[in-house]
Design brief:
By secondary structure, the chain is mainly alpha-helical. It folds into two domains: 158 residues, Serine Threonine Protein Phosphatase 5, Tetratricopeptide repeat; 116 residues, Serine Threonine Protein Phosphatase 5, Tetratricopeptide repeat. Helices cover 72% and strands 2% of the residues. The chain has 15 helices and two strands. It has a two-stranded antiparallel ribbon. β1 and β2 form a beta hairpin. α11 runs antiparallel to α12. It is globular. InterPro entries: TMTC_O-mannosyltransferase, TPR-like_helical_dom_sf, TPR_rpt, UCP035836. This is Tetratricopeptide repeat protein. Keywords: Signal, TPR repeat. It holds the Pfam family TPR_19.
């Protein structure tokens, strides 16, 4: 049962969190691809491996350069699964969601029963706002008798965006039973509470995620967002600037400020939290 003020917070938090939940979905649905190769100075293949953190820390120009290099390789053979998966991931992180989805649609036609392809296709659909088809793709990729924690977390992230937090959280807990302490799942669980307007519980899970081994900068940026939404902007800015180059840190802080501005300013949210 929500009070009027918490409903207002949920509405604003939802607008803020959809982008971030989609971002975390990229980590949640990443599978394991073989046949890694060098393309344009970076390794293609496993989105879930070391490349993910490299891509996550890229600046805008670096992402554009990687997309251009991968694009040239991709056009030579659109059915090359490792290249297509990495290209779609780079496109998505560059904000080119329609193009990413087009790449994944073609790959899903070529590999209609491939779990990794279906999972990445679900990610691309969710990023493009096609949540029901995304849910179907992720569920088709899952093997009930041997569930993949990444797919459970991905399904949860989609259900959260569809307004089904109880189902989503049950899936996150199932994923954590399989992979205890996994930061991407803990962060998605925190995001679930952010979407519901429960910022304090969201912060608890986000802090656990940020402290977990393997946590990347995206997890810490989500922690910064939750802290900023509670009015502690100095603390949020300090977290947003960690482990990044000065240029990337400034871009992250600018982005954080713009996200908070969508909520009529973080100070208004802080006042409502105190009165709720």
């Amino acid at each position: 049962m929500f009070t009027h003020s918490s409903v207002r917070r949920r509405s604003r938090g939802g607008r803020l969190a959809v982008t971030m939940a989609t971002l975390l979905l990229a980590a949640a649905v990443a599978g394991c691809a073989g046949h890694n190769r060098k393309v344009g100075g970076m390794t293609t293949g496993s989105i879930a491996g070391g490349d993910r953190s490299v891509v996550a820390s890229m600046s805008g120009p670096e992402l554009e350069n990687a997309a251009a290099s991968l694009g040239r390789t991709y056009t030579q053979n659109p059915k090359d699964k490792p290249v297509a998966l990495q290209y779609a991931s780079i496109l998505q992180m560059s904000g080119r969601t329609d193009q990413s989805l087009a790449v994944m649609r073609k790959l899903a036609i070529a590999y209609p029963k491939d779990r990794e392809v279906l999972a990445a296709y679900g990610k691309a659909l969710a990023a493009a706002g096609e949540l029901e088809p995304a849910l179907d793709a992720v569920r088709r990729a899952q093997t009930p008798e041997y569930p993949d924690w990444r797919l459970l977390s991905a399904e949860g992230a989609i259900l959260d965006q569809l307004g089904e937090p109880d189902q989503a959280r049950a899936l996150y807990h199932r994923a954590l039973d399989i992979e205890p302490g996994e930061p991407s799942v803990l962060s998605n669980l925190g995001m679930s509470y952010l979407l519901a307007g429960d910022l304090k519980t969201a912060e608890t899970h986000m802090r656990q995620a940020a402290a977990a081994p393997g946590a990347d900068s995206r997890v810490r940026q989500n922690l910064a967002l939750v802290i900023g939404l509670q009015g502690r902007f100095t603390e949020a800015e300090k977290i947003a600037r960690q482990e990044l180059s000065p240029q990337q840190a400034e871009a992250n802080v600018t982005y954080l400020r713009s996200m908070l501005a969508q909520s009529d300013s973080w100070t208004q949210i802080a006042r409502e939290d105190g009165a709720g």
